[in-house]
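Q: I'm writing up a methods section and want to include an example of the input and output format. Could you take the sequence below and give the corresponding predicted structure tokens, formatted cleanly so I can copy it straight into the document?
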Amino acid sequence: MEPRLTIRFTPEKHDYVRASRTLAQKSPWFLFLAGLILLAVIGSALLVIFPGLGGENLRSIAQIVLLVGVVYLLYYLFLIPWQLGRAFKANEHLRLERTLSFFDTHLRMGFGDRGVDLPWENLQKVVDGGDYYLMIFKGDQLVYPFIPGRAVPDADDGEALLAFFGEKSIPVI
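A: Here is the clean output for your methods example:
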């Protein structure tokens, strides 16, 4: 059986960083936590800047909350990309060319001399990150194949990809 669509690309370090951020930004729990931390940081900043708003104990707590907020921001903006960059350099598997073959019943994800078949019924959704697609498969294990925009340079191929997802009733958010 021939695939209906085939996409080939070699992942780059920034692809993994972008996939991680795209996944986080589309996660309701991440957005809730980020909003909660933002509110706590703003409230804490007000308590530190205007000491008359609260007592000494509240200012001490506010300083700790500000520190936690800064650490969270540094973790998200710098530590995660650094960790992914190290993993990318250390793991040859992450640098292998990817071949995504779209069949009527499944997605065949090939990398190097290996491959895995992912049935469409396990594809929960596709996240459209602009010039980037992240597929979220749920099944025995979580799998997040991504397609960078450079892998689909032709607008017709991009439309064919979206039409394929539509045909399969897979939500693209």
